[in-house]
UniProtKB/TrEMBL annotation:
Coiled coil: none annotated. CDD domains: Tetrahydromethanopterin_reductase (cd01097). Signal peptide: none annotated. The lineage of its organism: Bacteria, Bacillati, Actinomycetota, Actinomycetes, Streptosporangiales. Its EC number is 1.-.-.-. PANTHER family: 5,10-METHYLENETETRAHYDROMETHANOPTERIN REDUCTASE, PTHR43244. The keyword Ribonucleoprotein does not apply. The keyword Oxidoreductase applies. GO terms for molecular function: oxidoreductase activity, acting on paired donors, with incorporation or reduction of molecular oxygen. InterPro entries: F420-G6PD/mer, F420_G6P_DH-rel, Luciferase-like_dom, Luciferase-like_sf. This is TIGR03557 family F420-dependent LLM class oxidoreductase. Keywords: Oxidoreductase. It is an enzyme of class 1 (oxidoreductase). SUPFAM superfamilies: Bacterial luciferase-like (SSF51679).
Length: 325
């Protein structure tokens, strides 16, 4: 079991993201992963720095901790050739500590370049072609590709690591699980659903299984829930809504009737470590073995102290369920 920390780039400045990554390394986390957004989800967030610049700064300021995108859409806002180059450079700057997390994207971030938002099936087709292009470019040399949706013309990534980064593919069901098994090295999810792990393994996937665990630490329950509501109420809308809404104002409207108490069932919250461990355990029992802890509480440094004193040893002792059992 590896334990990571989610860098919530929509809620903090780029400088603070780098500081939190350094603090996460000192606290004993195995990796950090950062959201790759153009816009934040809600008005209260107020930030959305460029993930790749932040990763470069973290690579320069840390020594041991792994880095990952959680996750990048590699085919609308970016062309996969750019993602292939960015990932290769980040792998070099971090001495091989980087994992490329990819997914089918959200309209919130991708619509900014003026392209129509494709249906989910088409996005999966585009994701498959994007991964084929990235893999092709990582082989070296000049490469071209002609797909149904994407093209590559005489492109070469000149600075390549000796070992390509692992690719973790975000999955939400059987279709994306098949893409992960065929073209990825790992999976990435945000819900403790064993059927996601099963879909991946049944499709032939044998790699690491990443997931984000929602937590909210504060000295009292009410403060923890209020902070989770302020920062993460968008999460209760579900993945289909999160992928389709185009702007912050839409997420504000969609979450207008969400109450702090509505987050009790999905978050480990407050000062009680038992509640946090129970939240992490759900993901271990679902079969995930790379768990990124998301802190929706108001005090990042308080959460790091809480992790060191109360959570680190206990969550590492959890045993991921064997896929398929």
């Amino acid at each position: 079991m590896l334990i990571g920390y989610k860098l919530f780039a929509e809620g903090y400045s780029p400088q603070e993201m780098v500081r939190q990554a350094e603090r996460a390394e000192a606290a004993g986390f195995d990796f950090v992963e950062i959201s790759d957004h153009y816009h934040p989800w809600l008005n209260d967030h107020g930030h959305s720095g460029f993930a790749w610049s932040i990763l470069a700064a973290i690579a320069a300021r840390t020594e041991r901790i792994g880095l990952a995108t959680g996750v990048t859409c590699p085919f609308i806002r970016y062309h996969p050739a750019i993602v292939a180059q960015a990932a290769a450079t980040t792998a070099l700057l971090s001495d091989g500590r980087f994992v490329l997390g990819v997914g089918a994207g959200e309209q919130l971030n991708e619509h900014v370049v003026g392209r129509p938002w494709p249906a989910a099936r088409e996005r999966h087709e585009m994701l498959r072609e994007a991964l084929e292009i990235i893999r092709l470019l990582w082989q070296g040399g000049y490469r071209s590709f002609e797909g149904r949706h994407l093209r590559l013309v005489d492109a070469q990534v000149f600075d390549l690591p000796e070992v390509p980064p692992e690719i973790a593919v975000a999955i939400s069901g059987p279709a994306s699980a098949r893409i992960a098994a065929e073209l990825g090295d790992a999976v990435f999810a945000t819900e403790p659903k064993p059927e996601l792990v099963s879909a991946y393994t049944e499709a032939g996937g044998r790699g690491p299984r990443y997931a984000e665990v929602p937590l909210s630490w504060a000295p009292d329950d009410d403060t923890a829930l209020e902070s989770a509501h302020r920062l993460f109420r968008f999460g209760v809308t579900g993945w289909k809504v999160q992928a389709e809404l185009p702007n912050v104002v839409n997420f504000e409207a969609a979450t207008a009737f969400v109450r702090p108490e509505d987050l009790r069932s999905s978050f480990g919250y407050g000062p009680d470590p038992e509640r946090h461990v129970a939240a992490v355990q759900q993901f271990a029992e679902a079969g995930f073995d790379r768990l990124a802890l998301v802190n929706a509480g108001p005090d990042p440094d308080g959460f790091f102290d809480f992790f060191e004193k109360e959570l680190n040893e206990r969550v590492r002792a959890l045993t991921p369920a064997t896929p398929g059992r």
